[in-house]
Amino acid sequence: MRYLATFAMVLAAAGAQAPPGQTSASGQSQPAQPAPANQPKADCAMLGQVINAVTGEPLRKAVVSIRGQAGQPANRRAEVDSAGRFEIRNLEPGRYTLTAQRTGFADQAYGAQRPGSRRGSPVSIEQGQEMKNLVIKMTPHAVVMGRLMDEDGEPKAGVSVSAMRFEWMGNRRQLSSYGSASTNDLGEYRIYGLAPGTYIVQASPSHEYTYYAPDPELSARPEEGYVTTCYPGTTDSSMAARVAVKAGNELRGIDFKMAKSRVVRIRGTVLNGATGKPVRANLMLMPRNKGYSAWMETQQAMAVDQHGAFEFRNVAPGSYTLRANVMSQQIRLSALQTLDVGDDHIRDLVITANPGIEIPGTLKIEGAEQTDSSDSPLHISLAPWGTEIDGGFGGASTEVKEDGSFKLTDVQPGRYHVRAIGLDGAYLKAARWGDQDVVETGLDLSAGAGGALDLLMSNKAPQVSGTVQNDDGKHLAGATVVLLPDEQHREQLDRYPTSTTDQNGAFTVKNVRPGKYKVLAWEELEGSEYMDPDFTKPFEGKAVSLSLEEGSKEALQLTAIPADATAREKEER
Predict the structure, then answer these.
(1) Secondary structure tally for the chain: helices H, strands E
(2) What is the pTM of this model?
(3) CA separation for the pair 206, 299 (Å, rounded)
(4) φ, ψ for residue 33 (rounded to 5)?
(5) Enclosing H/E stretch for 565
(6) What is the CATH superfamily name and number for domain 264-353?
(7) Which of 119, 146, 408, 517 is most buried, taking the most CB atoms under 10 A from its CB?
């Protein structure tokens, strides 16, 4: 999934030599160090062409980016020539993704099944291989234009208008932005760079950073304010009109009025938890259960006076997360609180900011005297518990030091997954928190208590590899392979290992935890909808069941569920 990052592991060796041809601190020349015998040579290459998907003509001025997968460090760019051709050389063997960008066209990944999709098929290359004839077909972008007005038909300037789509994040569908623009003084907006498809056009009210102190009096009289509004003028996204655009199409006249609704104020005080006295703070108020699109509706404020007072205005009823940060040279405090806002003002809210929880720890790799070295650091992270992806706050991340120690800081109370990311072929075997192993149950910091984490990784993670074919028996590139966990782990985001097939229909799923799984392959998926049990249940009869033990390796040949079968199932639901 796109909201998930992959890291590689490294710990620097002591007493490093100066680079070949340079001198050390003693002034003596240092001989070049021979490369390890098993180090792959950077002698691979990728050659291809970028073309217009509509006309078939080569595209000049496009830029092709390549990114390594599974620990490959490459992150390179190449401009195409007048014939739309590109070359990327001096690559190490491995799996890579290619993406093309050009003004006037939607970004496009190599092997993507839909126009304008960045989710494509990785390319695998072997040592000494020169991969030729890679073709990336780019689609002319679509543009949506219109005017945004207030209830009196006057232009609304400085408002962000976005083209949104519902997509799966975690185990639910949420609106995600695919492009946005601000209205000018005439209320006009122009959203460009859109791939062909169907969108919801949404205007979000501007929430300037407020430095004002609260008014002395807060009237009980109801207030109205501008709220998030979808074309053609509804505040309910499920009732919004779907705007369909075609490749190269400029869709004009998407005009609508921004709606007003009942809004309230949230007024309160920030206190220093150690002293009990008011303190100045930065505050953020973010809607809950709206995924990453919640950032467009986030409000910011500041408690600036000696009383630590703050006020948010024009807050629509709903569920929110409020965070306060106090940072200076002397102190670092924070608070995190959920709020359910109704039709009445919230008065006299007290936010108590305390030092975040500090969690020291150590990481060991089973059977190794010390952590292995690689190309970049191993990371330890805490992620909010469950499968739901939200744009809210929470979690922490840090880097493991050479001696295997780490320290997580400013962790807020809550329940978290513990993750160790970066060591290829390994999994987190144990996470000791006192006398408990919290790998399965999660780290519960709801009470705010601190402690130490002792982590143990095993470099004998099970591995599942193989090929995926279509109903005609041909290898299928760009298919998604998913390992569905057993029922008791279906609510955990990090228990759904996935892989995408390369140009040969091959896949490998690494870093898998031992356990029972059902393996399925789909020709086409919408985000993380495989986390929805109602979606996967009709297909589980076609799954391959596996019971994976530590160190086991399974080779499978799978037949992908066709895209039309997936579409039919959605229609029936």
Answers:
(1) 2, 41
(2) 0.81
(3) 9
(4) -90, 130
(5) helix 563-572
(6) Immunoglobulins (2.60.40.10)
(7) 517
